[in-house]
Amino acid sequence: MSQPSRHRLSTGVAVAAGILLALPIAALLWVPLYARKDPELWGFPFFYWYQMLWVIVCGFCTGGAYLLVQRDRNRSSR
Amino acid sequence: MNTAALAASGDTVRLAADNKVDGVALTVLLFFFIVVTVGGFWAASWRKADNAHSLDEWGLGGRSFGTVITWFLLGGDLYTAYTFIAVPAAMFATGAVTGFFAVAYTILIYPIVFIFMPRMWSVSHAKGYVTAADFVRGRFDSRMLALAVAVTGIVATMPYIALQLVGIQAVIDTIGLGGRGNAFVRDLPLLIAFAVLAAYTYSSGLRAPAIIAFVKDSLIYLVIAVAIVYIGVHVGFHHLFQAAETKMTTKNPKTGAATGVFVPASNNYWAYATLALGSALALFMYPHSMTAVLSGKSRNVIRRNTTILPAYSLLLAMLALLGYAAIAEKTSVIGSDGKPNPQLAVPHFFRDEFPSWFSGIAYSAIAIGALVPAAIMSIAAANMFTRNVYKEFLVRDATHKQEAQVAKITSLVVKFGALAFVLALDKQNAINLQLLGGVWILQTILAIVVGLYTRWLHRWALLAGWAVGILYGTVAAYHQKSAATQHFGGSLATFPYTHTKVYIAFSALVLNILVAVVLTVVLRAVKAPQGVDHTTYEDYYTEGGDARRADLPGTEGGLPVPGGVRG
Question: Domain of B301: which CATH number?
Fold first, then answer.
């Protein structure tokens, strides 16, 4: 497994993508952070709109990680 | 679940007797049913390969699906009719911890899938693996471990299929076809729907649900968009949440406990987090998720889908809120048998609030939403049986054609098994078993996901950990009481030696990991044979749809050429 390979991501990209992917996981597993009613948004208690907001943010996180990884792969294969 | 509280919550209780058949809604439902039936049979000739008689063609759609089709397929597969019925039902009955966690859970899935699923796709593509158990067999060189993974997958999938039928039953009951007459007449619509489903799954394989998923998802997005606008205008979100909070915090006069949870308090933070994480980890261990992923044509199809699949999670969140809308609108959940059933919350909400033709569309979305996952699940279970039981233990030199034939027949057996299950036994059994299924399937994660990265864990230790996890999980679930049942009353239990309630699958997994790690250290110390790894480092990075496919070795380890039919 230690052989140098074109498949390995550069360290910076791996860390950045890792952070992007860890963000939604941390944001939702840390329940005390969002298990509250205020502030409300359009009648939605915080607990509910926070999680619905993270659905969208999560899409951007995985999308960002995808673009980072893709760019790195394309660069190293050229 | 507290029936007294449920009955009290529906002020406008309708009597079972004045339940008439809703002709308009039924016509709409029949129309869409015919549309998907035609689509399902037509699917057989859609993107047809020259050599249709292989498991890769029938069971994985030729591994040819691009990003958009995979999105519909996975969306239709993961967000099932049962989810659409059960999540709002749980919200309606007991609130956030049992219901809304599904939103957190369907967010957590995607970063996790982003990390490990492309590796799974690549190694399966390189080696022609059709199931997760195929991978375990090749990676750990252990027939027994692969059998354990396959049996767990099949057993966990069966009640899941059965629950899709429960979703259809809720719709049929709401239209007014259920609850009366003898058992045969009552269940006839379900029988017909399932016979038709079985027929086109048999002939079209995974292509059928891929086509039907387009219809299902278009309908469900339309229905939810309209419902949310309606709620925003007619009910008001402020009122909706207030009504839900009032119900959840109202104490049950008999037990003195609150009806449910509106916003988790410190005593159920762990329950909420472990339910979300445990379910997220478990979901992609199910054979039907794996089948849909492996049918993608390239590694990047999976990653792109982790970006666009959350759209369904947003949909799920809104659906969950329909459970609260039913509370706010005092929707009655009395079924045509005269008993309260929270699973009727969503169908009855549409029945009471919308004109018949639109309710018909909503019912169609739910009913078709049941057909898609039921088809994929039966295909996935059939693939597992064929590859990991039939070919591995019964007919070792089975040809591709034999494999495809066995899988087709197995898919029929699996579906009618599920049907018999729902019709013959109490619905509660299916719900119990589905709960257990989640606990069981999570125990295969060490062999599958950790196995993608390292062979450090010993195959026998993995098998022992799996067995201990399943045993603990089953016993713990058995001991959970609820108002409705003596056993299997819920998915939460106190973590061993603490007073903290957590998801049973999660505790079982912790135990599983402990056993696997300790035994691995022991087995490695005594130099127990580790078997031969049939995968190579390169296999985990195979890209799809590019020139490198051409130089893949043909038949590796006796496994069939993947597809081998595209020019």
Answer: 1.20.1730.10
